[in-house]
Amino acid sequence: MIRKHTRRAAKAAFAISFGVAIVVGGVVGTARSANRAAPTIVIGTKNFPEEFILGELYKQALEAKGFSVSYKENIGSTEVIQTALTSGKINFYPEYTGVIVQDVFHHATSPSTASATYALAKKLEAAKGFTLLDATPFYDTDVLAVTNATAKKYGLKTISDLKKVGTFDLGGMPECQTRTTCFLGYTKQYGLTNAKFKSDGSVSAYAALDSGAVLAADVFSTDPPLLAPSKYTVLTDPKHITGFQNVAPIVTTSVVSAAGPSFASTVNAVSSKLTLPAIIAMNKAVEVDKKSAASVAQQFLKANGLT
Amino acid sequence: MTAAGGPVIPNFGSGSSCVTGDHLFCWDWVKQHWGDTLGPALAQHVELTAIAVSVGFVLAFSLALLAHRRRRAEQPISIVAALVYTFPSIALFQLLVPFTGLTYTTVEIALVSYTLVILFPNIVAGLEAAPPEVIEAARGMGLTPRQTLFRVEVPLALPAIVGGLRIAVVSTIAIATIAATILPKGLGFPIFYAIALPTPFKTEIYSAGILAIALALVCDRALVLLGRAVTPWTRVGG
Amino acid sequence: MIYDTANTHTFVQALRFIADNPGLLATKALEQMELSGAAIGLALLVALPLGIVLGHLHRGSGVAIGASLFGRSLPSIFLIAVFLTVLGLGFENNMVALAVLALGPILTNAYLGVEGVDEDAVEAARGMGLSRSGILTRIELPLALPLIYIGIRVAAVTVVATAPIAAYAGGGGLGDIIANQASYRLSGVLGASICVMALSAGVWALLLALQRATTPKGVRVARVQNPAGELGKEGL
Description:
The complex is a heterotrimer.
Chain A: H1 4-32, E1 41-46, H2 49-64, E2 69-76, H3 78-86, E3 92-96, H4 97-104, H5 114-127, E4 130-132, E5 142-147, H6 148-154, E6 168-172, H7 183-190, E7 195-199, H8 205-211, E8 216-220, E9 232-235, E10 247-252, H9 253-259, H10 261-272, H11 276-287, H12 293-303
Parallel strand pairs in A: 1-2, 6-7, 6-8
Antiparallel strand pairs in A: 3-10, 4-10, 5-8, 5-9
Chain B: H1 17-20, H2 27-69, H3 71-85, H4 89-100, H5 104-128, H6 132-140, H7 145-175, H8 188-196, H9 202-230
Chain C: H1 10-20, H2 22-57, H3 61-73, H4 76-87, H5 91-115, H6 119-127, H7 132-162, H8 175-178, H9 181-214, H10 227-231
Helix pairs in contact in C: 1-9, 2-5, 2-7, 3-5, 4-5, 5-7, 6-7, 7-9
């Protein structure tokens, strides 16, 4: 005969797990609902370390000035975070001016100067109800890189030199394949009909270059591995197809108005300090020396009197 | 865009030689970043798993009782279960995003589906394992079908249920790492982050992965002990 | 808009995607099968002989059975990342990672299959004068085939259904579409997933046919209770 206490134990276990599921589900659900009382700045970032640093810089600077900030790090690529912005899930994220013009608004090319690109981006975003705050001094463009050995082997100095190579694999993040600032641009503008796109997935393009999985890869000009002395050669892009890529925060216009004048001035003060040496140093600290983006941002803001 | 004087660039300190030298495993990094990276990831992972298994268990148990009572329900539910097997898990997360967003809810729906698929066949098999003579004897003693179910069939099904729970918990902990493809939470996130760095960061990959495996094995062991506790009659000697 | 608002036409759109992109899907499917095939082959090479030998010797049950538990606890992205650090980015790291996932089912089932052969049959064979290797090849292996094949089928489907994750490490395959909703939309993700399911089902059917063709007539294909529950869906 089955003992009573076992039956009770089974019933208890069932009840407990059921109860736990309900309680935990309820707690998790309530914690997720946003506090709509004060104008909360909901900052999002894309999915790579430089964006994490930028996000933390703006987040901490705003918090220090008393703003209520909600931080959603690592939302995804341009396409994904744009959806988050336009659907209201976030109201602030740091974007690259050239990306706004070419990838968000699908213009075939960017204007020929950094300031013209910024002005155009600002105009395009304003028409959609978003304000582009001041741009940073630094720019971070897509660049096409090969290993030094490869550059030597084929005598590669500029992107069009790649026509000399037979069919080859060009690596990049999955989104690169259809972007005019990336694979589409490289192949069309420089006539690289011999290039085949190979997605790196989530893995760094440098790993792909190192293992020979790809011959050339789309990387970023502020990446620490490109600092001299570098194992990689950046091929020049005389047509500037990757555009000018200073960073400027996109903010929902209604939030800018509601947050008051000190909001814009706080953000712009941070942006003004972000020169190329500054951002590369911070990238190196996070990507190579494995410091957390939060602590690196904190140290930078403190050293510059922004907190 | 001209800055009023250049910024002060503090010295962030270089990483330990272990970290910059790409050594196999850097304990100093683990100790330093337990609080901001590994600890929170582990806690989130436990939370994700616990919710998925509890909800999945409740659903599986209810469906199993239904299938047990109405044998015809078992076939279609089993077919769905088999289909989920061949469905790529990264896809399930991706397909739910348009419905429920890049949220915990999406992750949980996916994880609960997999838990369900594992638990349902096991619980059904367990319920069906009761020998017909035992059920007859119970009826003979005057127990109603409902009483027979909960006093005889369910307890006899416990070993199979616990067995299914073991598999479900271990599998869920492993699959939950994939949640990081849409939500930067759980032990999958440090792994995806570390492979994206210019040089994939071994220590972060290994420590997050080993934590996930250890968590799974510890939970499995705990369930074995729980299983023994709720089925004392299996331990009775000769 | 990259994450489409889903509607009832989603499934139809997925089928349309498949119809509109046969070349793309075929290329990706081929890539995926190359990777999966290599992984399964590697796993068979390692786990099948080991499981058979252990079962024959009636040794190492802990290892053979524990292999499935341990294998189930290994997150696939972790395996891919580990072999990425060891072998660099390419075909091999993804192949080895997937092979590791296939080891458990093959090893455990080969062991259980051979180990569980009826004592009496073995005794009778010994009585008839068969050598140890003779017993293995003429008695134990044929009788163990049903379970061995189940292990191989489960391993194969696990590998094929898990292979899409290799796309996150540049491994190509249908995962390139599934992981790239930004470019291929929901219809692409669902369409590619349906293709993965079809591949898995095809592999299962192929191996089942192989089993029927190679199993001696005297050996019944035993109905194993909940093979799904027994072996579980792990590390996907």
